[in-house]
Specification:
The chain is α+β, with helices and mostly antiparallel strands. It has a single domain, classed as Immunoglobulin-like (Sandwich), CATH 2.60.40. Helix content is 16%, strand content 31%. The chain contains four helices and eight strands, in the order H-H-E-H-E-E-E-E-E-E-E-H. The strands form two sheets. Strands 1-3-6-2 form a four-stranded mixed β-sheet, with no helix packed on it. A four-stranded antiparallel β-sheet has the order 5-4-7-8, with no helix packed on it. The longest helix is centred in the first third of the chain and has 13 residues. 17% of the residues are buried.
Length: 171
Amino acid sequence: MIFRGGITWQLAGLVALLMVGCDSPPPSVVERPGISYIHPLRRSADDVARASEAFYAKESHGQDIVFRTTENERAGYYFYSKLSFSPPVDSRLVLEVVRTEGEAPERYDFSLAIRPKFPLGEYVIGLTGKEAGASKWVPIAWRLSVLDAKGKVLASEHSFLWGTRAELEAR
């Protein structure tokens, strides 16, 4: 039904909903830095090669920052991640991996002094060489954290099996 202004009630309701939907999120959501995503994936040496290497014979990472536990090995288990904030230059990216049940996690520590190129660059951490495990191996659990120079956790994400039963029940 149309009223005197020529706008339908439905259109007025839609405009009102859009205005409410455009309100900014709560400050706790905006201020909380974090890790946008982490994609763990097993890769062969051919999977991580780029087409440009066929022409230049030199490894190129494009927009990504790539860390490997064994620098000259490419095959392994990789974690592709993107941060939703810019951490301080002296901060660290720490990956902890549980290989077998009942053992302490292995810890891998990398400097965040170099940044991926905006907008598509990622941090790529590769467990390569002996750290890659057998060809079918996947970690039982993992946690990726961003730490400042004093060791304070700025952001952290983990796999489902990381943590204690109490931590999982608290969710």
